Amino acid sequence: MNTLTVVDLSGTEHLVPVQPGLSLMEAIRDAGISDLKAACGGFCSCATCHVYVGADHTVPFSVIADDEDELLSESAARRPASRLSCKVKVGPELAGMPITIVPGDT
């Protein structure tokens, strides 16, 4: 089981134990962190699950698909580390990277 560090909108860090294979959105929701709206339920149609994965660097573990890129392009808060949490699977590559919920997109 992996443990993620999720930073909510108030800046509070939560240690979240998760099973590999879940999406970040599912892991955050299952941990009871309500700051992540995820209004579409994980269908990549709303961008209300926008997070920063890691610091200000490009996340090396997956390619952003066209639908995710299009939704993120509409966000003024987009950074190189921006991802939609519904599109990122939890795995060992996330160990040690903070997951920060993006204010304004939720």
Outline the structure in words.
The protein has 106 residues and is of the alpha+beta class. The protein has a single domain, classed as Beta-grasp domain (Ubiquitin-like (UB roll), Roll). It has helices at residues 24-30, 66-73, and strands spanning 2-7, 13-18, 50-53, 82-84, 98-101. A hairpin with a 5-residue loop joins strand 1 and strand 2 (13-18).
Report a brief summary of the structure.
This protein is α+β, with helices and mostly antiparallel strands and 106 residues long. The protein is built from two helices and five strands.
The beta-strand count equals 5
CATH superfamily: Beta-grasp domain
- Give the SSE order as H and E letters: EEHEHEE
According to CATH, what is the topology?
Ubiquitin-like (UB roll)
Spatial strand sequence of the major β-sheet = 2-1-5-3-4
Describe how the helices and strands are arranged:
Elements: E1 2-7, E2 13-18, H1 24-30, E3 50-53, H2 66-73, E4 82-84, E5 98-101
Parallel strand pairs: 1-5
Antiparallel strand pairs: 1-2, 3-4, 3-5
